[in-house]
Amino acid sequence: MKLSAHKLRRYAWIWRRAVAMHFGTLVTSRSDFVFFFLGKMVRMCFFFVFFISIFAVAPTVVGYSKGEVLLFFATMNLIDVLIQISWYRGFFLLPRMVRDGDFDFMLTKPVSPLFMIAFHIFDFLDLTTLPVAIGFLWYAFSLLPSLGAVAWIGYVIFLMNALALAFALNMTLAALTFRTVQTGNLWGVFRDLMYILRFPPEIFPRGVQFFLTFVVPMLVIVAFPVKAAIGRLPLAVGVYGLAISALALVLASKFWHRGLRAYSSASS
Amino acid sequence: MNVATIRKYSAFLPPAISYTLAYRFNILMWSTRALFVFLATAWMWLSVYSGRSGGGYDVSSIFTYVVVAAMIGDFVAEDDQDTMAEDIVGGRLSAYLTQPISYFWRHSVMMIPVRGLVLLLIPLKLLVFLALFPNVPTSFPSNPGQWALFVLSVILATCMFVAIDFLNGAFAFWFHRAYGIRWLVTILWALCSGAYLPIGLLPGWIHAMILLTPFPYLIYAPIAQLVGPESATTRLLLVGAQIIWLVVLYLAVRKVWSVGIKRYEAVGA
Fold first, then answer.
1. In A143-165, which positions are buried (b, 16+ CB within 10 angstroms) versus exposed (e)?
2. Helix orientation angle between A218-229 and A235-262, rounded to the nearest 10 degrees
3. Which among A236, A248, B211, B238 is least buried, having the fewest CB atoms inside 10 angstroms?
């Protein structure tokens, strides 16, 4: 136990150092920081207006009210921002680090390479957009009739489940880097799928819904928390959502460690 | 532009074709990914307009809008600002400055093959749309005049985009690599161009503000020639606005280049 606490402190210290170092590189280009922030704000606000505009045409979309549709958008936003802040950038940079040989430096350190890769970049840019993402979420909830405790608990549980599943999927993509460094487009597909999940899932044909629930379970990430909150998630489907995330984490971890064993350095 | 000039710049086509074909899988992936986003947009709008009409659209016209946006989006908005920014920051621009060519025209010619490839992929995309939405009606016009204006509008939009792309890349004269501001401009044109929704559906004041920028004339103006609530006069006005914007952007390209090149510096051998 003492060892675990010590380990935890050590990892916390390493994470803080990595965060500070990344912040140092970020502020070397203050103009980029400002413009990226503005771009993210513009994009977020545009899609908020986009969804508001839809309801000038229709009072409901596939049976969902304005507040419920906005909740899909706001939840996607929140999850996306949290993913970006925490681990996405770190995993995303792995192919370049492998190509350049920089990954070797991480392997030589007495720290878990998975931890180092996933968490060495803390995205301050997305952190600045978090208050706005929370503001949209608050607005979406304010349009809904007040939720009971069960709905709130369900929402929070499936939100955390969504983060776990997204981490597993990102870890899997990162682990693919050990087989091929040409994974750029796969990361792009993940981003595209995240963005299209801002829509209620029922807009998709049943086949696409099935694919995005059971084959590439992206709908578990966004749709499940929202459906749990508004009471539209059947218990059996909810249990499946929790199980698939747990399974994905185990498989991703195995895939990562196998990939790591297959890794051969490209550096000099 | 005389024959000798055309011959001079056409010399850039073979290397540009080789470069394009070297990354054909990437282009295919980009197009597929863009198609995926457009499919989601199509399903969204079909759900919204199912059995309804509003904002000058009904289910067939909104579907036609999305299909045309998917067809022309990649063709009009094929960008190469990264290469230009890297040329400026990395000092490769010096090599072009010693040649008797205009960097702007070279930049424009280099994007012709990739646009050609995107054009070739359009029938494939159409097939995907037809296969996935076999029962959704479309509302393409039968008037050849509208089709002629559409083609003209796409050409004007493409020329406008080339200038916007060049101006975006030229930010690297002022900001190191200019990642942030170039991304901001990319976000602005992508959202305000009408690629995601007909801009007339946005709230009035946002719609009015967007119309003052060059962005809606990239995607919305060409599509409006074929589908939507715009009258014949408004459609002509949209083409007129494209011509005015093209002139303004070309003058801006000249001005920005002449000022930017004075700031340019390269070191090394």
1. ebeeeeeeeeebbebbbebbbbb
2. 150
3. A236
Tens of pLDDT, residues B28-53: 777 778 778 888 888 989 999 988 88
Residue linked to tokens 């209620």: A200
Query: How many whole angstroms separate alpha carbon B75 and alpha carbon B17?
Result: 16
Q: Which of B48, B58, B25 lies closest to B137, judged by CA?
A: B58
Q: Which runs of E-coded beta strand occur in B97-227?
A: none
* Structure tokens that stand for B36 in this block: 């995926």
Q: Which residue has the tokens 């981490």?
A: A167
CA dist., res. A223 & res. A226, Å (int): 5
List of chain A residues whose C-beta atoms are within 8 Å of the C-beta of residue B179 = 29, 32, 35-36
Q: Taking CB atoms and an 8 Å limit, are B202 and A49 in contact across chains?
A: yes
pLDDT in tens, A86-121: 999 999 989 888 888 888 888 888 889 999 999 988
Nearest-CB residue to A192 (from B37, B183, B187): B37
Which residues are within 8 A (CB) of A121 and not within 5 positions of it... i.e. 6 or more apart? A18, A22, A89, A90, A93
Runs of H (alpha helix) within chain A: 2-26, 30-57, 66-83, 89-92, 94-100, 103-107, 113-119, 124-142, 149-176, 184-196, 206-210, 218-229, 235-262
Question: Nearest 5°: phi and psi at B9?
Answer: -75, -25
The answer to whether B234 touches B216, Cβ cutoff 8 Å, is: no
